[in-house]
Amino acid sequence: MSLSTASKAIYLNCELKIGIRTDTNTAPASFYDSVNFTVAEITPPKQESKSLLSNMYSNMGAALASVTNTAESAKIKLEFNYMPPRFLALLLGADVSEVTQAAADVTADTVNTVLNMWVPLSNNFIAAHGTGTEIELQTSGAVTVTSDKYEIDLTNGMIRAIHADAVGTGMIVSYSKSARTWEQYLAGLSKSAYVQLSGEAYEKSSGKLGRLDIWCAALSPSAAVDAVKNDYFSGSLEGDLIMPSGKSSPWQWQLVTA
Question: Record's superkingdom (predicted)?
Fold first, then answer.
């Protein structure tokens, strides 16, 4: 079958899974779930022309010859707002892990309280101690302080004295650690990864489902993240497209026509 010469409209919707390569030439053994990309901008290699200009008076400035040199590799820019934890970690420049905290009683967490100031306890994600209904606070002399004289931040594990009776050195707080599991992102680091994007490319004009493979993108964060913009968390990654060993191009698109 020969390649069609007819012009066509192209309107793509893509659903791409992501795989992390250990190096440029080793394909991922498995892929994470699809990412909701809002931008997947691929820039072809940047080329620059080098002209040989005439310096002769009869044709001054005319190009006697011109060659094109490649100045930069193909690049990709990705923006997205729905992603698996591994991609979110790359966006944040983070090491990510899952942390589990078991429920346990803490009967003597010693702190030095300050009037109207939040003071950290030894644990986060806390709850009422044992079967009681309140966090318990005692002075170093084992005198119980009533709960209307201090406040507790259960999520961050902090106590704030709001009365002089709750202020002191060596104050003893009793509570329970809650059973919790969380994703922990140790962020703000310099992170990058070799990423492969593979998945469906639906062409809406023809109604046919094709494929798109970006074999290897050397990606790193390229924009700030805003945690309080009152919108879905989003981010941006950019980098060079690399052609792995055994491939004849950095990426391929299979547009189904029949």
Answer: Bacteria
Say how far apart CA 111 and CA 163 lie, in whole Å: 16
pTM as predicted: 0.86
Residues 128 and 76 in one domain: no
Residue 183 in contact with residue 173, Cβ under 8 Å? no
Are 93 and 213 in the same domain? yes
Do 173 and 118 belong together in one domain? yes
Spatial contact of 76 and 241, defined as CB atoms under 8 Å apart: yes
Cα(176)–Cα(172) distance, rounded to whole angstroms?
13
* Residues of the chain below pLDDT 50: none
Residue type, 89: A
Q: Which domain holds residue 28?
A: 12-46+68-97+185-255
CB-based burial label for 196 (10 Å; 0-12, 13-18, 19+) = buried
Alpha-carbon distance of 173 to 128, in angstroms, equals 11
Positive/negative CA dihedral, 124, 130, 136, 142: negative
